[in-house]
Design brief:
alpha/beta; 16% strand; Aspartate Aminotransferase, domain 2; binds pyridoxal-5'-phosphate; 14 strands; Aspartate Aminotransferase, domain 1; 39% helix
Length: 445
Amino acid sequence: MTPASKILHRSRTVPPRAAKAQGGYIFDESGRRYFDGSGGAAVSCLGHNHPAVVAVLKAQLETLDYAHTSFFSNAPMEDLAAFLIGAAPTKMGKAYFVSGGSEAMEAALKLARQAAVERGQTKRVNFVARRQSYHGNTLGALGVGGNAARRELFGPLLPANAHFVSPCYAYRDKAPGESEEAYGKRLAAEFEAKIAALGAETILAFVAETVGGATQGCTPPVPGYLSAIDAICKRHGILLILDEVMSGMGRCGTLFAYEREKVNPDIVAIAKGLGGGAQPIGAILVSPEIVDAIENGSGAFAHGHTYVGHPMACAAALAVQHTIRDENLLANVTAMGARLEAGLTERLGNHAYVGDIRGRGLFWAVELVADRATKAPFPSAAKLNAAIKREAFARGLLIYAMGGTIDGKSGDHVMLAPPYNSTPDEIDFCVAALGDAIDEAVASP
Ligand SMILES: Cc1ncc(COP(=O)(O)O)c(C=O)c1O
């Protein structure tokens, strides 16, 4: 008998152990294989154990495992920073490497405050963020996150300086007859009203996921929305922090998700697709103006962790990014993304319990409804999203399932975020297995 687990697991039941992985597949201890259709949480962008990444990591481990950044810089960190700054669609000054998405967002929030203080704007203490968003699980990042379910238990511990406006959620919030442009303008006006209520001089930054991630399920911004927000920020000296932890690094078909928006962010956070799961890593890219504010002021970012700029993590991320470039994988994301969209639309577009299919690149969500006409959700007690995840798992497909799509309590969606090097057969398998899982789950909710 397997001994009782000594791990504080995420779920009441102990999940099966992953024994090995190769390409798009994870194998459990019994040898059963699962297609990693969500890359965990949109992480494994090259699948698993890509030979180019494995080779770089082996060589790095034999060369330099770790050197604390208070003593030394290191080549993988410097090279990765140069690569990312060279690849960013807007002018970025410097990069800072941490161990994941939450740490990246913590760094972004603290840097925003430090830059304001260095500029003599000490009254700036507030963040404006969006409901139904997610920026990480550490207290600072959770504080600016609008994921009501994840905030609930820790509410009394969260900083009080985050203020919320509506997310960009066209499926439910765009009024009948309202154009996407008019909807985007309405959201921008809401931000203006929030600024007027708080006082522009008290606001550090507007914080948003470029493409909404797991909390609402792959919600792309409507045309013009983010550029209108950016223009408002610029008018008031408010920073724009874009969280591309989930949507960035090729997931949406462009290396940075904001390439499709006319925006000039001050800080961009990236993580999951940066290292593709080969190592834990996150990062922020910082505009030249913020770098100047720090360098002409106190001289250094007043922040740090033991593992910032870890050589193994940075080497893995650089190998992942080189592979995306060398194997021309963004083109495959676009092609396979179009195949996934077409497949989902054909299989589920007329499904009685599917309200919306949305996404970009290889980042797609299906929102479930009990009634297509009224968009009424299933009762949350039915935990439909969890049932779909279970049914997909039973069919050898890993998906990302979430409840609380609408307001943190009601609504269900499931997400696919397969590897960038997925084949047409693998994409077709995702569509077929997810379709069958949904049919089965709604038949006996
Ligand atoms: C948009 C976004 N920001 C931040 C985070 C937090 O990243 P991590 O879980 O690596 O700390 C996540 C994780 O899902 C995310 O999706």
